[in-house]
Amino acid sequence: MTEDMEKLGNSLFLGNQPDAWVPYAYPSKKNLESWFTDLLLRIEQLAAYSEDMTAPHSLWISGLFNPMSFLTAIMQVTARSQQLPLDDMMLKTTVINVTNPEDIKEAAAVGAYIHGFTVQGATWELGRGDEQGNLIEMIPKELTPVLPVMQVTAIRRQDHTKAGFYECPVYSTTARGPTYVFTAWLKMESEEYDDKLWILAGVALVMQPE
What we know:
The protein is an alpha+beta fold. It has helices spanning 3-14, 32-52, 67-82, 196-200, and strands at residues 58-60, 89-95, 112-115, 118-120, 123-125, 134-136, 150-156, 165-173, 180-187, 204-208. It has two domains: 1-54; 59-208, Hypothetical upf0131 protein ytfp (Roll), CATH 3.10.490.
């Protein structure tokens, strides 16, 4: 029995991810049981994806091993179709009024629909009709509200509008820091709303809640 084998056995006994697995896995703070369930769901999505090489109508982006590569592909496709330099492109995020991804019956005409985010430090209020909702203050006892389906498209940086939007960081786990993935622009209540309130509240999107 080596020291490494003993550490592995102790981790499995306690229901934790073994340290020896971490360098070869994806960022996650889940316990071993939740982590294994999550891994099986990731494999299931990739298997379905690879059957006909067509993305789901709404992609569980949290289940990708490298979610940023999918988002980069959206910018690449848009840049190529419009004959624009890739360096001039950025992501635009629009949260639609659909809370259940299964209600999405067809793929987005532009970009892609994605889901799998939880909100920290705030929550999301649905809009009326086709109007986009907006960030609101946290509801007591709702620590990790789920964000509705998001449509991601690519636009030129010069066409981007910052007024009325919060520059929200997206992380793989609640550890934040090195698990940063991309920046989502989330609509605020109005253009006059002070985004510093959300910054002080530490508002962020997380892909892998514990």
